[in-house]
């Protein structure tokens, strides 16, 4: 694959749209695995990617869970970071200017513990130059409703999406939790509330036990499983959700190779995010992009949309 093949005139058409969010290609980096961009900038050219989703941010800075917070499992990674982040004000002041200066398409992942907090976050991000879209992490406890996760209740998912949409004019992507019985009903609720797209999946609730110490490995007991181990589950959910809603779907979960990415695009995703693979190899996203272009050239696909399996 040569650089020219990535340009508009020579290769296949790579650009995709998620509502009002235009990406020059469908490969993004997933939230929590690429920091706020600058951390990776010595290792890869982030502006060559479709975009990055920054680490989830909240109204106030958070310190996260007690250690240990990471543990490797066969073909996977368990994390219980606990949504540690710098807080929205410091993001706007210290992180966003770098992303803007370096022309990185930036999706800001937000989290909150009440509808009001999500709404305030959306209002603060609205109109900030350098932010291209918001991704709403609904895998957070609603403290006003006894800690039930927004992402496990269609009504709460609807309400939080509607509040964010009303509070800003940016494209809004709702990030779905796989820890539900029927992910399609949550996706439909987000669509009905006006989401421009849905992204899936977030991590699968999981744990590990240290048999010598006879106690759970993670300080938080439970964590989220990511990496190749979750790919078949994520792919199945992307297939189902793509057929349940008419808004664009962003596929996430264990994508490590270009073949993985193509599977998600064939299942119905309009774009994909690379997460844990970036922690193993920072250039994974770019390698996936180059492999995707080669595959499209070899198989005569003219656009990303053509990859989707029509049933
Ligand atoms: C260390 C780590 C931190 C993460 N932090 C966030 C986060 O802040 N917000 C979020 O929505 N997802 C977060 N995620 C989930 C990823 O964005 C992604 O949905 C998940 O890891 C599945 O993709 P993967 O298998 O490619 O990693 C995190 C994942 C990891 C491994």
What features would you describe in this structure?
- This protein has a single domain (3-64, 85-205, 228-307), classed as TIM Barrel.
- The chain has 8 helices and 18 strands.
- It has helices spanning 88-101, 115-125, 154-167, 183-192, 231-244, 258-267, 276-280, 284-298, and strands at 16-18, 21-23, 27-29, 51-57, 70-73, 76-79, 106-110, 133-137, 141-142, 148-149, 172-175, 197-200, 204-206, 209-210, 215-216, 223-226, 249-252, 271-274.
- The strands form 5 sheets. Strands 3-4-7-8-11-12-17-18 form an 8-stranded parallel β-barrel, surrounded by 7 helices. A 4-stranded antiparallel sheet has the order 5-6-16-13, with no helix packed on it.
- The radius of gyration is 18 Å and the shape is globular.
- Flavin mononucleotide binds at residues 30-33, 55-56, 77, 79, 81, 83, 109, 137, 175, 202-203, 226-227, 230, 252-255, 274-277.
- The site of flavin mononucleotide (FMN) has 26 residues, from β4, β6 and α7.
